[in-house]
């Protein structure tokens, strides 16, 4: 039986794994958030064309959310590159998903900056931006921990949760992709998320396990 989101959050609250030298921290501290028993909920941000977006824009299709920042030296580009490779393997099935990169660094990540950054990845990955207050509210709703950390050169980096959250078309969290999961595991999870109730190529994946292990479902005929 797959663990519930609450069980995973409670378990993860006991463990904080810092990706050394990458400017990212894998941290889920349930007690930090205003709704510790629910992942997801209302938010107001903007897309890269300045149009307002809310949680309603993620309904109707399964959603894949990753929070980060464009100055991230390792975790963010690595994760986005893995998602890009998996989405490329999916072909047109990737259009069944809402895939979103949400900036946690509104001071530096303008729509223009984020658009240029995402140009290196799959064009189906959307970008969301917002004010510091809007970002904080969305991060709270989606249980994303982040913190601005000064660097020795007078600049700063961002420590942040490094997992990719997976939601069904109703907005319910149904799985996650852990930092460091490879392309094959990521592909298995995304194709399973995109084709609920079907037998995706290669079999279905458990959306909660860290290795993306496949179930007994066989290839589609």
UniProtKB/TrEMBL annotation:
Protein keywords: Copper
SUPFAM superfamilies linked: Thioredoxin-like
Pfam families in the record: SCO1-SenC
Domain Thioredoxin: start-end pairs: 34-196
Family matches, as CDD domains: SCO
UniProt entry tagged with the keyword Nucleotide-binding: no
PROSITE patterns per UniProt: THIOREDOXIN_2
InterPro entries named among the record's database cross-references: SCO1/SenC, Thioredoxin-like_sf, Thioredoxin_domain
Keyword Manganese: no
Family affiliation: Belongs to the SCO1/2 family.
Record protein name field: Electron transporter SenC
Species of provenance: Methylobacterium oryzae
């Amino acid at each position: 039986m797959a663990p519930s989101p609450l069980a995973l959050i409670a378990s993860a609250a006991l463990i904080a794994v810092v990706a050394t030298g990458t400017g990212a921290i894998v941290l889920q501290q349930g007690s930090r958030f205003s709704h510790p028993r629910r992942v997801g909920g209302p938010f107001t941000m903007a897309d890269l064309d300045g149009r307002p977006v809310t949680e309603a824009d993620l309904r109707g299709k399964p959603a894949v959310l990753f929070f980060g920042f464009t100055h991230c030296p390792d975790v963010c580009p690595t994760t986005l590159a893995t998602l890009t490779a998996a989405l490329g393997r999916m072909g047109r099935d990737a259009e069944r998903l809402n895939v979103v990169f949400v900036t946690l660094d509104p001071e530096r990540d303008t729509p223009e900056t984020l658009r240029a950054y995402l140009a290196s990845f799959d064009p189906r990955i959307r970008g969301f931006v917002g004010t510091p207050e809007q970002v904080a509210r969305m991060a709270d709703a989606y249980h994303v921990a982040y913190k601005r950390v000064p660097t020795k050169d007078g600049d700063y980096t961002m420590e942040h949760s490094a997992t990719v959250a997976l939601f069904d078309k109703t907005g319910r969290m149904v799985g996650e992709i852990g930092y460091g999961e490879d392309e094959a595991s990521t592909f298995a999870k995304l194709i399973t998320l995109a084709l609920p109730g079907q037998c995706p190529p290669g079999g279905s994946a458990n959306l909660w396990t860290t290795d993306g292990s496949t179930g007994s479902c066989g290839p589609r005929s």
